[in-house]
Amino acid sequence: MTSLLMTNARLIDAAGITRDGWLRIRGALITERGQGDPGRLPGESVIDCGGDLLAPGFIDLHTHGGGGASVEDGPQAMRAALAVWAAHGTTRTVLSLVAGPPERLTSVLAGVAALAEDEKTGVLGAHAEGPFLAPARRGAHDPESLRAPSLEEAQDLVAAARGYLRQITIAPELPGALPVIEALVAAGVRVAVGHTGASYEQAAAAFDRGATLLTHAFNAMPGIHHRDPGPVLAALGDARVTLEVVFDGVHLADPVARLVFAAAPGRVALITDAMAATGMPDGEYRLGSLGVTVHGGRAVVAGTDTIAGSTLTQDVALRRAVAAGVDLTAAVAALTLTPAAALGLETQFGLLDPGYVADLVRLSSDLHVKAVWRAGVSLS
User: Fold this and answer.
1) Global pTM value
2) Which residues belong to the active site?
């Protein structure tokens, strides 16, 4: 097996920046890391990064579509979305489903499992954003498809995903939610609190039962009130919880996003919540069964002001975060190691260390993507 040597790079991951760094890759894995002159092995391919940044591949925990396709459109259609995301540095994705009838959810989960079984896609599995959501906080989910948590339906979702149900969002104040959270966690599924009207105490109870994520913090949930602190403060104060942030200038004002980074260091995952219009022109699209209008890149449920996901890509989230004052290393960690750890995959993805999968993004000094590799294979 020949090796690939990447030299003259500023290596950046959650541990910091190494100048004049190099990586050696064999097959799908990073085998060596160093600084200075690495020497050359016989037959080794060499890429001189010219002083560019070299980061781990980005991991998106929450994305619905792109390139004109939604997860509900099926595995073949989703390959267009995967290509869009890869061009912007995302090497691993968790595909998010909106709420729907049971038969549709199980069918879509089976399709996501088929994609995840093909290692070349970079799909890590599925995120069921629903159906166990609070109707009053439904956002862009069809109200007819929402229902109270059911242990039987939860087990059906787990079975349909064939081991690839990575995450599910639940409103913990709904009847029966806490036992379902416990059962899902026992089955190896990460549970997120979201689309919820939960109080601080109700959210804290969900975290004590095993929930470890907050779905798109501040959106589709109460904010922080000085006499009613709500689910965001419960998540900020719990070291077990990772908070999803959509840093697109639409979902959160920049000062609020900075506050989350400051209050929960190492626990922020920059997600896109992207929908089918990502990488596409403004116009009319769908998110599940609902029509979506996109104007100026802002997606809303047709005829309303309700945000319907985003058209964000993770490289744009990185640039926006840094421009807003977030430390570069912290922002890169929020795209790499933190989401990997949220899924329990922090020993495989998210660092530029020997033994880690060679998912890499080469970035210019102004943080634009110049090249991408997944498992040592060039995607650019």
Assistant:
1) 0.97
2) 273
